[in-house]
Amino acid sequence: MRAFLFVLSCLLTVPFAAAQKLPAKNFLRGGLAPAKIEKNILLNLRYIPPASLAAQSAFQTAKTAVVKPPVRNEQEVADFSPLQRTIARQTLGGLQAPAETTSLAQTEKHIRASLVEVVGRASGDLMGSGFVVQSRSGRLYAVVSYHVVGRKGNTVAVRTYPEKGAPVVYNGLIVNAAGSFGINAPDAAIIALPQEAQAYVRPLTIAPSLPEKGSELVVWGSPYACEGFARIDELKVTLAQGIKMVMDSPDVSEEFNGLCGSPVLNAQGQVAGIYSGHDPEQGQVFAVNARQALEWLLESYEQGKLPAPLTYKVYGRDVLQIQAEETIGWVYHFDQGGTLLHKVYLPKYNGRFDPEHAEWLFPDVQHGDFLEFEIVKHRFVDRTVSVGIS
């Protein structure tokens, strides 16, 4: 079994006398595949039941979003349909204790309705991947990468996928809260979905903790290289600490471009991470700690507050705070005489790092040395902070 499997490869070959080819997007994306090909498609996919072969539905027309007020109490949940009640109680935080998680296979049976894409408002071109979650209040959100959609208040288009029928495009949605850039930062953003999406999307459950080293994870998303959703497996966790996860992949390449924002799923079908980038030379894939990033963004937004500043520490001492949409860029290590010894570009640093232990960047730091942090906001250096090591 290939580790890197494009579940929706650009063409699927049907094994009968006159071989026919079918664009894979017609399968999960609700197209009009010939009925006689349906059975053969199943032989090429894992876990996914056949999509509807019915005609295009009324969902085909793009719609303007109207966001439903958050669900505040159990009575409002009781007014939902049975499916909506189940979803409301099994999502991030939940109104009640989450139901027992089944398996990755169960999650993947309905994965189409859990995924979203960020697309160009005018062109419709794919910009990035994402997925659906539901907050404690019951409100639905698309989770995407901060570096794809940018700052809070930006206007974007999001394409969602019912399990059956054509995709639903919501144009003019607003980025409600945004994180920071880089693989060592909460590179995530949330976008509230319209009320009507309750009828067909399936929010994913967020893992309660980071995966153990050696765990194998799976990514579902929309790479630029293929017209369809892709499943990437055999991602082995080598580091999971703080906000960052690092995974080894035997097949990582530039064909992974477009996956940023995709859910990284564990064996229980829960979202452990949010895909944030990859390094083909090192054979590595990176992801953001999903629970830490989303709780940080969602709790503050739904309370009408700005996300709390992120605190960075050196040897247990608070040394600096950065706000949402700020990023630490270069970090410099100087000796007490002012000579530059080392420097690290934090947004791409793939080594061990935790904001609670910024000293890990420079294991040979000595008493009397000092560190200098560049704080970047919207791609420009906003300020620098110098920290003496005492």
From TrEMBL:
- Please state what the protein is called: Serine protease
For this protein, the record's SUPFAM superfamilies field holds: Trypsin-like serine proteases (SSF50494)
Which interval of the chain is the signal sequence? 1-19
From what organism does this protein derive?
Candidatus Avelusimicrobium gallicola
Name the Pfam families on file.
Answer: Trypsin_2
Assigned keywords, A-Z: Signal
Query: What superkingdom heads the lineage?
Result: Bacteria
